């Protein structure tokens, strides 16, 4: 124990008082070096946010057993970088199959990295801070989406002018330059791995091992409330991302918008979520009542889709409502996993949630395309309304089940604080 204390002091930069080499010298930035201090955890939060900056729209399967934190996160980031390079090379040499392979590699690292990001969040920010942290992470992801939508076209034009030609070569060079964000993600993963291991040694606890191992055998232990959270997640996002993917043409055909105006209104969901996600996260932190906030978000989304389907009101109203509700749901829904799952199963739970979300999005996107081609946009909107309605039903069931079992999903902030204090005593 004394050896561990000595190692912890060394990592913090402490020295015995008799050490003449540093006697009287102030410690440099002590708060930033102490993993138990808020300033240090804010640095970790910043790194976590940038960790997922380059991986905002990917899909990937998860191995049956996988180490998440530490060097596992570094491996995922490396896969993201390698996948992006292969993708860009496919454009340069005009090989579409190579571009597909690059996206496959990118997806394996990208989605697993998102699971690691969630697990890091729960490991470093437990309790009342968690909703705000998830909001900040979502905000950074949406900023990444917005930067991608607005910057890559401009970058392509500039490279086209420089090379004096358009086509696959210009596309490949543009993608290669865009891959700089993947390198940023890798750097953040390396620093996070070091800080996580350092905190584990200094604090003498399993700081770096929260949900570190993903085991599919843990699924049999998942509770009914957790399965309902999964169902809410799949059904809700099925009515958001596929709609945005098809939204531009929808606004052109139904409302007569120009392509530029249609793109602007279609991206307003991401634009709103970037600043509002942290605000809603702080709101949920201060009030608790996660299930109620999820209920409000899903109900508002249902109203938004009904407005788009059955009225010719200015669609800016419905899309702004969709942006607000989307931001609120993410802040209130994703932290609930940590409230119902033991720490050693968090990696499995978040990984499974991420996987079935992507599986649902893949299936719904195919169905949405088939409905659009055969029946048109009205029936497509009815389909999205059905998805949101199923999500709303799942939220009501979650509220009833949680209440019947005396669960903590809908605790107020005060109740959560009392629960935390009772566990530490």
Automatic annotation (TrEMBL):
Pfam families on file: MFS_1
Subcellular location: Lysosome membrane
Basic and acidic residues biased stretches: 8-20
Catalytic reaction equation(s): L-lysyl-glycine(out) = L-lysyl-glycine(in); L-arginyl-glycine(out) = L-arginyl-glycine(in); L-lysyl-L-lysine(out) = L-lysyl-L-lysine(in); L-alanyl-L-lysine(out) = L-alanyl-L-lysine(in)
Membrane topology: Multi-pass membrane protein
Region (Disordered), start-end ranges: 1-22
TM regions (residue ranges): 42-62, 74-98, 169-195, 224-244, 264-284, 291-310, 316-340, 352-372, 378-401
The keyword tRNA processing is annotated on this UniProt entry: no
Superkingdom: Eukaryota
UniProt-listed SUPFAM superfamilies: MFS general substrate transporter
Entry-linked CDD domains: MFS_MFSD1
Keywords, comma-separated and alphabetical: Lysosome, Membrane, Transmembrane, Transmembrane helix, Transport
Protein family: Belongs to the major facilitator superfamily.
Quaternary state and interactors: Homodimer. Interacts with lysosomal protein GLMP (via lumenal domain); the interaction starts while both proteins are still in the endoplasmic reticulum and is required for stabilization of MFSD1 in lysosomes but has no direct effect on its targeting to lysosomes or transporter activity.
Role, per record: Lysosomal dipeptide uniporter that selectively exports lysine, arginine or histidine-containing dipeptides with a net positive charge from the lysosome lumen into the cytosol. Could play a role in a specific type of protein O-glycosylation indirectly regulating macrophages migration and tissue invasion. Also essential for liver homeostasis.
Name of this protein: Lysosomal dipeptide transporter MFSD1
Phylogenetic lineage: Eukaryota, Metazoa, Chordata, Craniata, Vertebrata
